[in-house]
Specification:
This protein has 291 residues and is of the alpha/beta class. The chain is 38% helix and 19% strand. The protein starts with a helix and ends with a helix. Bound molecules: N'-Formylkynurenine. This is Kynurenine formamidase.
Length: 291
């Protein structure tokens, strides 16, 4: 790869450089401010259980945000945060909880060990165990829905392609739907970029953890799961491409999948606007989960 090719590839995989709202530094700052403020608000206002352990690793913790008078059949929105597998945490990931709990949905923010503490394999294993744990903890829920943003979209897709016989009790959790927002479904282009510096993935690690190479497992384990693939108008062309290709792949295998480009959003507010009840995606999520 020439220096120019590397520069182009890194530009494509630098979401902050494509924002129509702010420059690169400011858009990340704004994102962190919004997700932190809205999570703090949710923690102050709502009934929540924080730091619930889902396994034995120190980072195996999740936060649960409950609707008032929570019904035992409340549907569950499991949120897997983004941040290129190296930024953010569950402590900034309850920002969807105020509008979603108001609609009767239980919100869970999953924690996992970002790099350099965790490798991609560790993170994938953690989110799979978290979903298995939730399906056991809330057996009467009307449905488990996975939502992931960016790197979390990748982890959410890896949850769908799990070999569940190797996760906890071996049971397949009934996942009713997935909202994959500005996700990465092929990790191989990232190996040669700055994104990989703390991750230290080899080509083989990247392939083993690329959802686009394991889509057959999604159909096998979760044939009825409805998938919504979402990206921002001002996401980089590579993110548009990855979302569209993964959508087509799942469609080709007979899954019920739609792909939606949200106008006037970039890589960051495409997800953090879920803190607002009138945002297009908030309404789509609620409609899907209550149908
Ligand atoms: N280097 C990345 C940084 C990035 O993606 C990011 C940084 C902080 C928090 C979240 C991020 N990305 C997605 O959630 C970028 O250029 O956007």
């Amino acid at each position: 790869m020439t220096a120019i090719e590397k520069e182009d590839l890194e530009y494509q995989y630098s979401p902050s450089r494509w924002s129509h709202r702010f420059d690169a530094e400011a858009v990340v700052q704004d994102h962190v401010r919004v997700v932190q403020t809205e999570t703090d608000k949710a923690r102050a206002q709502l009934q929540c259980e924080l730091d619930v352990p889902y396994g034995d690793r120190e980072g195996d913790k999740l936060d649960i945000y409950k609707p008032d008078n929570c019904r035992s059949d409340a549907p569950i929105f499991v949120y897997i945060h983004g941040g290129y597998w190296q930024f953010l945490s569950k402590d900034q990931s309850g920002f969807t909880a105020i509008p979603l709990t108001a609609a009767g949905v239980m919100v869970v923010a999953v924690g996992y060990d970002i790099a350099p503490k965790g490798t991609i394999d560790v993170m994938v294993d953690q989110v799979r165990r978290a979903v298995s744990f939730l399906s056991e903890k809330f057996p009467s829920s009307s449905g488990l829905y996975i939502c992931g943003h960016s790197a979390g979209g990748h982890l959410g897709a890896m949850v769908l392609s799990s070999d569940w016989s190797k996760v906890r009790d071996g049971r397949v959790p009934a996942i009713k739907g997935a909202f994959l927002v500005s996700g990465v479904f092929d990790l191989t282009p990232l190996v040669k970029t700055y994104v990989n510096e703390p991750l230290k993935m080899t080509e083989e690690d990247a392939r083993r953890n690329s959802p686009c190479l394991f889509s057959a497992a999604v159909v096998k384990n979760h044939p009825k799961c409805k998938v919504l693939v979402v990206f921002g108008e001002h996401d980089a062309p590579e993110f548009h491409r990855q979302s569209k290709e993964y959508t087509e792949q799942l469609k080709g295998l007979g899954m019920e999948v739609s792909c939606v480009e949200i106008p006037d959003t970039d890589h960051f507010n495409v997800v953090h606007n879920l803190a607002e009840e009138h945002y297009q995606l908030t309404k789509m999520v609620i409609e899907e989960m209550l149908s």
